[in-house]
Amino acid sequence: MNFAIEVEGAASPLGHMELARTLSSATSSQDHVKRQAADQQLASWQAHVDFYSTLQAVFLDGNLPREIRFLAVIQLKNGIDTCWRHHAIKNAIQPAEKQLIRSRLFRGSIDERDAQLALHNALVVARIVRIDFPNEWPDALDGLVEQLRALRDDDQRLSGALLILLRIVKELGTARMLRAQKALQNVTPTLVQILGEIYDAKTRTWQAFLTAHQGDERNAMAAMDNGLTAFRILRRLLIVGYEFPHKDELVRQIWAFSQSQLGQLLGMADADGKYPQLGKHLLQFTKLHLAMASSHPASFAALPGSAELARAYWNLVAEFSLVFDQSEGIRQGSSSNETKPRADGPLLERLALKGLLLMRACIRMTHRSVQTVRYRSKEDSQAQQQAVASIKSQLFSDNFVNQMANTIITRLLVFRKADMEAWEEDPQEWEQREESQGNAYELEVRPCAEKLFLDLLTHYKELLLEPLLAYFATVHDPQTSVTTKEAVYTAMGLAAALVEDTFDFDALVKSVITADAVQTNPMCQILRRRIAILLSQWVPVKISKETRSLVYEIFQHFLNSDDPHNDIVVRITAARQFKAVVDEFGFDGVSFNPHAPYVLKELINLVYTVEVDETKLAIIETLRSLISRMDNSVTQFSDLIMEALPGIWSSAGEMGFMMKQAVLAILLSLVVAVRADSQQYHHWILPLIAEATQEGSDASIYLMDEALDLWHNLLVNSRPPLSGDLLSLASVAIKYLGYQTEHSETYLTIVSSYLTLAPEALLGDQYRQPLSISLSAALDTTKYEIGNVAGKYTETAFRLSHQIGGDQGFQLLMRDVVDTGFLKHMLEGIHDAHEAHKTSGPRKKQSRLASFTLTSYFSIISRIATIDPSTLVMMLETLGPIESVWDWLSTEWFSNFDTMADYDRRKLNLLGLTRLLELPQPVAGLAVGKLQDYLSMWTSVICMIWDDTKPGFDALYTLEEPPATEWDTQKDVVERKLWATDPVRTVSALPFVKERLQSLAQAVGEQMFQEGLANVDKDIVADFQKLGETSSAEPPS
Question: Taking the alpha carbons of 262, 268, 270, 276 in that order, is the dihedral positive or negative?
């Protein structure tokens, strides 16, 4: 049948056959034009009232090709997610169409023979039930139960009904809404009843075939599949469908039945491996038991036979431990129908893993109180405590605990033959898999056994300590095999934090481990790998300074590529584990220095040698940690490191961003460690920064954060004058600072560093105007940190312009501030705030400026006034007559003191306002009109900044520069000098005010001054006069 599209999509009406033709074109891989037109047509039809019900009709049409029906059900499933809920306004599915779709949902799986199509329809049903049940579709599950009863004897159609129910229970079981949880719990007894009947009937059918050869194999296998699906649903319902499973009689019956079935099926599975479904049945039972112990520990303890069940599981573990060293292991593979990985491997090993997990759950429930937010009556709580206490006394006897610990450390921690074969087959891949899956205790027997051993030792330390120490002592026996010793070292590493006070690990390192590290007998590499791991586990816990140097020597030996017994796995493991040794608080750089050149060289060579990217990253991370911990002493090896890094960067290729991130991290650590000496590597580092920050590049997406951190640290550790290559990047930082991106704060620190270390360049003709524009944009931020820093360095720019270029340099910057609109923008913002502050009530106007931005603006204006008040007045006159500008500007300026928390800024604003008193008329007369504000401000600020220990002395005044520290960067050195020469430090406030006040009186005349003073509140005048009585005439020395 040909479904080629014939007309333009927009002109096609929606119909059954038209939709089928369009879906056919959408699945075509040959004609891109037709496929694109079909996609557009489908998108336009989504607004049609019958689109989704027509999709369902196409899916249910068994005469259509499979690929069309498959696409139809996928489209329907996607539509449920976006358009089914009532709050989805666009293209929402209407109630009538919803009813039509619901009426045909079950058919899509029950009557469907294609397993994949049936599965996707079941997913559609489950999603709709999750949304509509029980309010919009109250009889959804009742209708499905009727189907289950009617189809008991029709295995083909029954499988579809069970599949639907399985997906529904999965969906409702993950719901967090209390409504959905209660709805599922209400219907659970009915579902459990019918499913129990189906499982019992199907189990009898296939067991009769297997044991008595009754019936045919095809029906028996179909019954086995349906029975398995029924139990999968039962398993979930028993966990999520009951609040107290142990109180329900039907649950207790199923629980007892599962235990008897477990033993019966174990015998059948051992006898004949022909039917893999038997193993799946067994695993479903184990999942039920494990889920009950984990999710409902109190119910597990109260259910009949749970202690005996746990012992039976341990017997499985003990049985498997006898053959563990010959087992092939559990492999995780992909599954076509499930989102979870599929586990492949010997059935006994998979069952043993479940047994280990169950024992861990039992230990948790008996040693940790059950935490719940739900109300429990006193009787319920007591009953739960009694049940848990009972299982603890029945299960964890001293003999049983000793037996478990002995089995784990002697049999389940051994290095297997399969591990050695995988090691030899692909060493790097095996090492990476061991590292990534080593903590996956829910997927592998050995990691799970390690976790269980730790649980036992944590809760039964007094019982297990003596035999454990005796087990540790076996490593002193020279006849002990390599695999046995490896297992002992494994247990020793796991127990480090628990036996540190009773076991002398330092003595063991000196007497045994050092000798084992240089063994050259067959399989010695197994022991070397384990010793590297053991040392990384013990060093952070407890190690002496004397032994620490031995540890460094051992790791140097393991990293030696010239030793034929150090294969790639040994060297990679040593490189990985050495990070824990380096990161340890007591890392001794002096003791490590003799080993540093060899270790660094081998780590770098190893990066080039390994092929697995994850492994490379781990080694580079160890290298980064080592550079950080060596601090200044790494300087003597910096050439060795820098020669290697560009090659690693290049080998990563265009898309190796994780590797490049790691290289940038190493460079950052190196720059921080060598500080100013990093300037000799600028020719290597700067091109990498330029590449990583290139606008619009893929590299900038992934490397920007690391590159900016490196750039900033490289800059602040560079001695002035800065190189031309480093200065050439300044334009990039200035440009991006004005963009207001997520990196604005970092760009601001970079620009501020350029301004501090290279003021001549930043305030020169090339950068001055762009700098003004970017700082203006940064000041408009809504982030306090950025606005505060931007204000600080805008002030710094004005100071440096005057300090370097004198009045001419200052005027050049002021001209650019005016030409770029910076000053106008700033004053307009202040005026807007003034207008807003004049309003009140419900219609109060909100200022467009944040309070911290307004404070920064006034601090900048104060800095200008402090440098040259006449220049400020000239700039203000560009906005209009100085009288009108002064009116609103001074009002807002004085009121802003109330929002200034920083004392330095308060004093700066005091200095700026006070310097205006030096100017002649008309400014002098305007200042007299504000005498009350001046006197009040002077009194308030001077009292705040007075030294508490020396009343009357300005605490901000100092003639001393802050002391240098060993951590100072080049930027810190320059900023310390700027701090010491700031008028906020070099001017004592009260004498400064008195001098300007006297000059104001002379400028306006005594009569005008006294008239202005007469208008000031007497209390304010009195408070100001008291300052003179308290203060010293001379500033403190």
Answer: negative
Query: What is the tens place of the pLDDT at every residue in 596-623?
Result: 999 999 999 999 999 988 999 999 999 9
Rounded to whole angstroms, the Cα distance separating 679 from 969 reads 13
Residue 415: DSSP 8-state: P
Burial of 825 (0-12, 13-18, 19+ CB in 10 A): middle
What per-residue confidence (pLDDT) applies to 544? 92
- The size of the chain, in residues, is 1037
Do 125 and 164 meet the contact criterion of CB atoms below 8 Å apart? yes
pLDDT of residue 273: 62
On the 0-12 / 13-18 / 19+ scale of CB atoms within 10 A, 742 is: exposed
Q: Give the DSSP H/E element, type plus range, for residue 342.
A: strand 342-344
Distance (Å, whole) CA 100 – CA 94: 10
Cα distance between residue 945 and residue 954, in whole Å: 6
Note whether 147 and 198 are within 8 A (CB): no
Using the CB atoms, write b or e for 862-893: b if 16+ within 10 Å.
bbbbbbbbeebbebbeeeeebeebbebbbebb
Q: What is the mean pLDDT of residues 93-116?
A: 93
Residues 962-1001 have pLDDT tens digits of 898 888 999 999 999 999 999 999 999 999 999 999 999 9
Q: Which residues contact 792 (CB under 8 A, 6 or more apart)?
A: 752
With left for phi above 0 and alpha for psi between -120 and 50, is residue 30 left, alpha or beta?
alpha
Judged on CB neighbours under 10 Å (0-12, 13-18, 19+), 321 is buried
Task: Tell me the per-residue pLDDT of 528-542, one tens digit each, with 9 for 90 and over.
Answer: 999 999 999 999 999
Residues 630/589, Cβ–Cβ less than 8 Å: yes
The dihedral formed by the CA atoms of 353, 357, 358 and 362, expressed in degrees to the nearest 10 = 150
C-beta of residue 561 within 8 angstroms of C-beta of residue 571: yes
Confidence grade of residue 271 (pLDDT, cut at 50, 70, 90): very low
- Angstrom distance (rounded) from CA 674 to CA 667: 10
The per-residue pLDDT for 270 is 56
CA proximity to 753, closest of 720, 725, 801:
720
- Are residues 993 and 914 in contact, defined by beta-carbon separation less than 8 angstroms? yes
Q: What are phi and psi of 919, to 5 degrees?
A: -80, 155
